[in-house]
Structure formats: structure tokens, C-alpha cells
Amino acid sequence: MAKRSPMVFIFITVLIDLLGIGIVVPVLPFYVKILEESGDPWLIANRALLVGGLSAIFALMQFLCAPWLGSLSDRYGRRPVLLISLFGTGVGYVIFGLSEHLFVISPWLMLTALFVSRIVDGVTGANISTAQAYIADVTTPENRARGLGMIGAAFGLGFMLGPALGGWLSIYGLAVPVYFAAALAFMNVIFGYFVLPESLPVERRSTRVQASNPFMRVWSVLQNTNIRVLLIGIVLLNLAFTGMQSNFAVYSDRRFGLTALDNAIIFAVVGLVAVIVQGFLLRMLVPRFGEACLAAVGMILMTIGFEGLAVAPTAMWLYPAIIVLSMGSSMATPSLTSLVSRRVSADVQGATLGGSQALTSLTTVVGPMLAGVLSDTVHVTAPYHTGALLVLSGTLVVIMTVLPMIRAPRSVPQ
Predict the structure, then answer these.
(1) Which of 111, 119, 160, 242 is placed for a possible disulfide with 367 were both Cys, Cβ 3.0 to 4.6 Å?
(2) In CATH, what number is assigned to the domain containing residue 411?
(3) What pLDDT band is residue 349 in, cutting at 50, 70 and 90?
(4) Residue 33: inside a domain, yes or no?
């Protein structure tokens, strides 16, 4: 058990990060809805923009701070960075939960507290790279893929369970889900304090903090003409999808009056479809059809799904649309990433995929803001019509690149 406890801690840490993100998704728009009770015309008119802004500031802090947290762990060790960042995540959730009580003083004070909570959580929650570094420290090259795969499992599980937990717990009070996430984070700090050994010996540590500029990573990866078109497709896909994630609860409330629990069920369906497609179906589909074909088909399904959300006549029609959208995303995203990987040499795989991830992270900043602006200034369905157009444009761009590759697919290891 002693040898397994550190890996258990890492798994739980990543799971809590993703659970927390998922838990907030169905309740965040309803926190912002409280601000409308102030009667302030600006707050009433810009609810979707504020929801998008709170999602964007969290993503921006993660984008900016992930390299610094990783570099700090190179200098001072993985253990203190992981424990302190996890404690900060808990503090961020506590501030989020307490913000509701500030409304009686001033709605703007409540809004400020919400932004502070998302900034704190974004800064301290950018610890995935440190968790990956810890696994690299304690695993052999032969077992490293399995260890890193554990992080992927935590991602999928957290995204599926988080919204469901958030919606279910919101029945007992809007703040209950975020306090629950805070309790999980604090309990894991205590658990890690006793079971998590340092994985990076002093003699192997860096002598100074050397964090890479995330914007330079994005610029560097875009210079590669072999993958630039595929990256454009990834950007367009993620702009649409991240906008939908942040805006959906506002959209479903405005059009159909859905509650946090209703939205949680829908997001749980998204997570379940993603687990089924990425965990099981892709293993059968890739050898038969290849990544190029799956990327194209997946993006076409996403286009249909977005338009289906936009034109849904009743709330029940949201389910088939979101299932088609989730199936398409689960097919297209890993397939495009694999195509990017196959178009670069082995010695730059890490740098290329790191740059691609940084580029994707930027879309989680821009996508929610774009969806919020469109929803507030154009129409509540505008983010979804726009999402369909973005993904369709990406589909056409990608198809021109991958068409020669839609052939007898290579076999993949089981």
C-alpha cells in the first residue's frame, strides 16, 4: 500500500481538479443569475457574458500558470507544489461559495468575489503538468504510459461525475456543491501530507525557476507547415465546444427553464458518451477506418449536433443533439491529435503536443467569451449556429488536408 499511495494521491488530485471544474459548470450560471435580482440593467443584460468571463479567466490563469508551477516543482520539488496548489484550489472553492452572502452588501462585491475565486482556482489548479512530472519521476519508461494513462482516466471520470454531482448537490443549496469540492481538496491535502513522498531528489533539482512562455509555445507550433491546417481545425472545433460548455446552462435556462440538476444530467450524458467512444469504440474504429476518416466524420457529427441544439423545439430534443455532438467531439479530438503527432518526427513529439495543448488552452479562454457575447447581443441560439459554422469551416479545412490519407488504415496495437 505504501508504494501505491503516492499514485493514489496523484489520481485523486487530478480527479478533484476535474470534479471541481465539472461541479461548477451547472451551478455557475445560477450564481450569476442571483446578480440579476439587484435590478442593475447591465448585470441583467450581460449574464451570458459574465458566465463566459468567469470560465475564461479560470482558463487563462491555467494557461499562464501551468508552466510556472511545473518549473517551481523542478526547483523546489513536486510535493510542496502539489500540496500547496491543492490547498489553494480548496480556498478558491470556499471563496466561490461565500460570494453569495456578499450580495446583500453589493452585487458588484459578489461578482468580484466570484472572479477572485476563479482566478485563485485557475492559478493553483494548473498543476496537471506537476502531477505528470511526479509520475515520470516514480515510474520506469516501460510503465510510464500506464501511469500517465491514469491521468487520462481521472480526466474522463471527473468530467462525467462532476456535473452530475454539482446538479444533485445543488438540490440541497446552491453553495453545497462548491463546499463539497472544497472539502475534497482539503481532505486530499491531509492525505497527501502523510502519504506523499518527494519524488525529485535535491541533487536532481533545477537551480532556478525556468518557465517557458506559453505564447511562444503556441507561436512555435504554428510555424510547422505540416500540421498548421490540422491545428486550425482543432482551434475551430474547440472554440465551438468550449463556448457550448460554458454557455449551455444559460441557454437551457433562458429557452427551456432547465435547472442545475437538469443540466447536470445532460452533462453527465456528454461524459458518458465520451467515455464509451474514447474508451471502447475508438479501439475498434481506428483500425478499420483510420484517424483521418474519423476526424472528418466526427467534425460533421459535431456540426449536426450544434445545429440540433440551436433549433431544438423542446428540452427533450437537446438530448439527441448533445449525444451526436459528444460522439463527434469524442471521435474528432483524439483523431486530430493523433494526426498531428504522426506528421512530426519523434524528437519533437513532446514540444509539438505541448504547443498544441497550449493552443487548445487558449480556445478555452476565447470560446466562452465569444459564446457569451453572441448570446447577450445577438440571440440566445447564436452561439450554437456559430458553433456549427465554426466546426463546418474546420471540417472543410481538415478534409482538404486528410483526404489523401483516407485509405486502408494502419493497424493499432491492442
Answers:
(1) 242
(2) 1.20.1250.20
(3) low
(4) yes
